[in-house]
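Exercise 7. Given the components listed, write out the predicted structure of the assembled complex. Treat all entries as one system.
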Amino acid sequence: MEAAHAHGHGDHAHHPAGIMRWIQTTNHKDIGTLYLWFSFTMFIVGGVLALMLRMELFQPGMQVWQPEFFNQLTTMHGLIMVFGAIMPAFVGFANWQIPMMIGAPDMAFARMNNWSFWLLPPAAILLVTSFFVPGGATAAGWTIYAPLSTQMGPGMDLAIFALHIMGASSIMGSINIVTTILNMRAPGMTMMKMPLFVWTWLITAYLLIAVMPVLAGAVTMLLTDRHFGTNFFNAAGGGDPVMFQHIFWFFGHPEVYIMILPAFGIVSQIVPTFARKPLFGYSSMVYATSSIAILSFIVWAHHMFTVGMPAQAQLFFMYATMLIAVPTGVKVFNWIATMWKGSMTFETPMLWACGFIFVFSMGGFTGLVLAITPVDIQLQDTYYVVAHFHYVLVAGSLFAIFGGTYYWIPKWTGHMYDEALGKWHFWLSMIFFNVTFFPMHFSGLAGMPRRIPDYALQFADFNMLSTVGAFGFGLAQLLFLWAVLKCIRGGKKATDQTWEGAEGLEWTLPSPPPYHTFETPPVVK
Amino acid sequence: MTSKLARLFAAAMALMATGMAGANQYNLQVPQTIIAREIYDLHTLIMWIILAIFVVVFGAMTYSIIYHRKAAGAKAEQFHENTTVEIVWTVIPFIILIGMAYPATKTIISMKDTSNPDLTIKATGYQWKWGYDYLQDGISFYSSLSTPRDQIEGKAPKGEHYLVEVDNPVVVPVGKKVRIITTANDVIHAWWVPALGIKQDAIPGFVRDTWFKVDKAGTYRGQCAELCGKDHGFMPIVVEAVEPEKYAAWVQNQKVKMAKTAVADDPSKAWSLDDLKARGEKVYASNCVACHQATGMGVPGAFPALSGSKIVNGPKNEQIALVLSGKPGTAMQSFKHLSDVELAAAITYTRNNWNNKTGEAVTPADVKALRK
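Answer.
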């Protein structure tokens, strides 16, 4: 990593070298790199936890872990993947790409940018070390529902502090992104000329600013319930356990879109490039993204249809949830219309983008099934839900992250990645992803609850298949690490434009770009 | 080569046949109530709609991928933005959604109609078992997992109903509207029986309700559906639907059983230390063993040991008070729902077992005195 950045551009004299360079850096490219490596590290940690829990689920019966440790594994897998892997990865992309895509020299608040990254490692350390405190990590699920979470040991407190810190980091990062986008666009780049990735991040940043404080509030109330005798969620003291769920999901549902909107942005950059054709409906994509964001605030209770709310509330949340299918459909139709009558080639980024559209849409379909309240009441808290959200979070967010990495890594490093490696990575991931998660639809329909360490015999076949798939998927990710390291160390020289059909300001810069870019803003016509 | 292919084909057919046989491995369980049937049909309807959309959308995408490749000689056209097309693909999904929402709305309204039940049963979630109170008939009992530990730990072959069998099933009459009221003692649980089409969270301090009317006699199995701690996967629900006459006989039988227990557990009789210990071992096994373990050693870091514990070997009133009120912020909940005799027995057992040798009996009267 160090070596890759040290050669090719000679303007390093004015900042420290070695480790201090990374600790003190205020450069958006360095910080982007830090975010991406951090998120990859957490992805591996979260992945190992997932494989540990799939090991126990390979066969009926308790073989490897105790039930309480199993619950810690599911909980920490969720927290680490959501807050440690997926979210920081998108912030990494935002840091690298937004200034280069809008023709800005750097992020608006360069020092705050440094701080928002460096808050993350302490949070990660809190999460990971919570396994080693008495009682172990929190085992209340990533949703940390009260009052189960008030029963937990000190591991829960560490997770609460970690969430506070990561929330602060996200809010700072978002303020930075909003300010950069609104104030630092090159002359001539009107809002409706911004690349879609920039648009989706602008909207995501607003969502983050709106809901991270809500999560902070929820976990703070939890903390005071745990230690200072308050009764926010304790019915015996006049509180309400269901209120925790309302507050949590008021954060949680927009959070889901925080993890998918930037992915939409990345795919909307990749598809036109490799179809050699402009995006079919740019403005409708912008409006669709905004509608999804707005709707995300009024659908939260569809995560809690089984708590027993009045029929009117169930109807409202069902209708609102179903509405989301409309703008999401618009996005998918737009991508396909962009491909239509294009001149497509299928380099690795395009494979990931097509894979994304295909598999993410299946997650969208099951989302529609789950929106129907009566059906949801059967499927809530079963493996069907596990299948659904992995289809949108792995096949959605993660596939887009991989696609984006292959798409922009030639720009970042100045080298082309190894196409064969990239394609192997794609196909193995695609196959094993489906082997892992497709059977979970069946287990869930047939009645297997989620978050259980052991299961009845009729679920045995599909669980075995899922475990085999999970190990295949996990191992395939080592190919990604290999491809990235190989690309950093060398490879065919990437041209400035890199891809035949690529358009946008970042492709006017040399590959790799100099340490500081667009010190004089370009003019966009 | 052909024989190899033939074998492969035969294997595939066999796989499909087993798939057919175990149909409930692939789909919702066979519905047994009107609501479950409506849910089943709704799900099937939506799957057909989704399949149609899938074919159209991904048919177009696949066509494009095959024919609009550069390698196939495709030249990129530069069209974009078409208001008519965009309006069409916004309006059509909207209409499809309305078609889906209409039947769903009807089902929601009938699911919510818990009025005029023939029978009301209160289901209380405990970590980790269910308690049932038949409000009209005055029957109460607990229902815990009956799968032996050895099967779970792989020391014995697993039975047919592994993890979905209980000691005392919920018995209901067929053809009667049964209203289930849920609540919980400690954390949130969820009472779920897939074949009956109901899942209702059981929330401590709150009461929720739902209903079902079973069409035909049979045994229907479900599980707790809301993460409730360590043994969340080990608190199944079994509903036995029987003909109304059999139900009446069962009610009588339960009443006799309860009366016998009441006599055996008479708090006013003279309880010897050994009587209490013997009764206490049973109470301990069904209420305490999940956390504190049969060895009394607990689970280090998670659940404290009772053997050698300061509280268990200390003044008895402090231990009684702790058991009655629970310890806030931990999995140690209040056990005041147990009777004076049960509590006295269990506490006596812990104070005179393993390394604990207080030699002292806790009487039902001691417990009664400390109840608020």
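Discussion: The longest helix of chain A spans residues 67-102. DSSP finds 19 helices and no strands in chain A.
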